[in-house]
Every structure is written in structure tokens, then in C-alpha cells.
Write a structure and sequence with these properties.
Elements (H helix, E strand, L loop, with lengths): L4 E6 L3 H6 L1 H10 L2 E6 L4 H4 L7 E4 L14 H14 L3 E4 L8 H9 L5 E4 L10 E3 L11 H11 L22 H4 L5 E4 L11 H13 L4 E3 L6 H8 L4 E2 L6 H9 L3 E5 L2 H8 L4 E4 L6 H4 L6 E4 L20 H4 L3 H16 L3 H5 L7
Helix pairs in contact: 2-6, 8-9, 10-11
Amino acid sequence: MSRPRVLVARLDSFGDVLVAGPAVRAVAAGASHVTMLCGPQGAPAADLLPGVDRVRVWAAPWVTETAKPIDDAVLAEFRALVAEERPDEAVVLTSFHQSPLPLALLLRLAGVPRVSGASVDHPGSLLDVRLRPGEDLPEDVPEPERALRIADAAGFRLPPGDDGRLVVRHDAVAPPSVAGLGRYVVVHPGASVPARSWPASHHRELVAAYAERGVPVVVTGSPGERDLTAAVAGSTGIDLGGRTTPAKLAAVLAGAEVVVVGNTGPAHLAAAVGVPIVSLFSPVVPAVRWAPYAPLVELLGDQAAPCRLSRARECPVPGHPCLSTVRIEDVLAAHERLLDRASRMEPRSLRSAPEGAA
């Protein structure tokens, strides 16, 4: 029996696509060709994933970051994309708060004969393989494991020797300003929404505290965060805000002693390159699902704060106490705990990856 051409869909952000990586590798182990369908924000992450043969970008009208009217032109664009890729089946990957059914409907209309996904709502004829969240799909599992369970239900499993960790291709080198440092820490102060951000003043104080200890700090961020990274870096940090591609950012993170980062895409990229992580995690979404999926993580932030599970974009509690109460000393102590734990672990257990990924 010939192996199928498979379209794997994950339509939202950079980090969401990264955590789908193990599921993509499972599909790739049983497919002849894997097309990764992503939105504009997630596509750069798909380019880093082992197992992807081709990345296609389509802005879904129901995804917040790409919201736009749905009309005949959008439907025609989608049909043309599917016709070019010729998938035998599709695996739709979603988080606990998302439905696969809008995309499943379009896949059916485009002629895809087999569609798999996880849906609370009854899918009728839209899904051939359906997992039921809260029944045969546990609610509180890490996102990479959720995606793997969807792939498994569709008939795709990780190959022998693949431990299911997050990994990315390592095909870039760090900028010269970083490559010669030796020991350094990465501080990534940005986050997609304010409710997930440690205060910028705290980040700046942390960079200064590392400088006092003789530890170089590299400050990273997107092009839209250049003012933030410049303020945080001050006169002692190396400011790379807006100066790295995703592949180069992976290289910068991979060389760090520790990465200090909030709940944002680069946290998952840090997990994928096997570096110890101090995770400044706001409980507006559950850490059990969205904390960095890696063996060396120190989670900071009050996970029982009143904003817990609110999915708020702006902090609903005056003073943002879940993160603002995390002190510089707390981060430095977490850093030391990570180094201690790392010293007692086998190197392979820190940076294991499927063959050819690194």
C-alpha cells in the first residue's frame, strides 16, 4: 500500500506551530509527502520543522490574528491551494479552545477524502477520525502531546528513536556579536499580549544584575519590539531586537547558558533547541498545556493568581501581580537551580532529537 500525501494544518501563531512539531514528524514517518498549512504568523516556524516537505500559507478568516471577511475569493484561493497539493488526507491540529470544523468543511468542499481532528461539537460528515476532548482526549495535557494524540488517532506514530521532544533544524549560525561570547544568557522581554509580560523595568534590572556578575546578556525580540529590547538592554546588554531571522534566533538561543522568557513563541523555540529555560509564566492560560515542553524549565509566576485561566490579553487585576511580584533574585535563583539540575543530567537527555534534525 502506497504512503499517502498528507496536509497537516495548524493555522495560528509561531509557537503553536512549533509545538506541533512532534506530530508533524509522526505524520512524516508514515507519509510520502507532508504539506504544512499555516497562517502568516506560524509559517516561519513551519520552515524550521523536520518532516515538512512544503509550507503553504493561508490566512484563515476565523483566526484572530488574520481575521478578514470570508468570500468567494477566499474560498477559491483555498480550493486552488488544495488542488496544487493533492493531499490524500488532512490532519487538523487545534488547541483546546479551537474547533477543527471550519477548516474541515473547506477541506471537504475542496475534495479531501479523509480528515482527522479533535472536536467537542458533533462533526457530522466533516471528520472521518474524531477525538472527543474531555472523553477520549484528555483536556490537561501539554500541547505537543495533544497534537501527537490527534496524529496517532489518524494512524501516524513517531518512528523508533524519536522521543517526541520539540526540535528544529539547526542550519544557521549566531551573529558575530554573539558567536564569540562563550558564556551568555538570553533575555527575551516581549510577549504577544501584555497580560503575559513581565514588566520591562524588571527585565532591565535583570540585565544590569547579570552585568554586575560578569555574565553577558543578549536581548532578543521581533522587529516590532526594538524600542523594548533597546530599553531592556541598556548600556550593558547586546541588543538583537529585530535583527534575527527565526533560524538565527534558534542559533542564538541554542548557545545560551539559560534563556529567560515569557509565554511566547521564542519560549517554545528555546525548548526545541534544548536550552535551560526560566519561564516567566502568567496563568491566564494553563501552564500544564503551554509551559515550555522541555526537561529543564523553572516556572515562575503565581499560577493561582485571580487572572488564572481568564485568557485575558490585558491583565484584569490591578498591578499585574502574577508576574510583577517575581523578583530579580527569583530569576537568578532559578538560573542557579537550572545549572545544578543540568550538571546532574546526561547531555543526550538535554538535547535529544530525531536523526537529521540537528
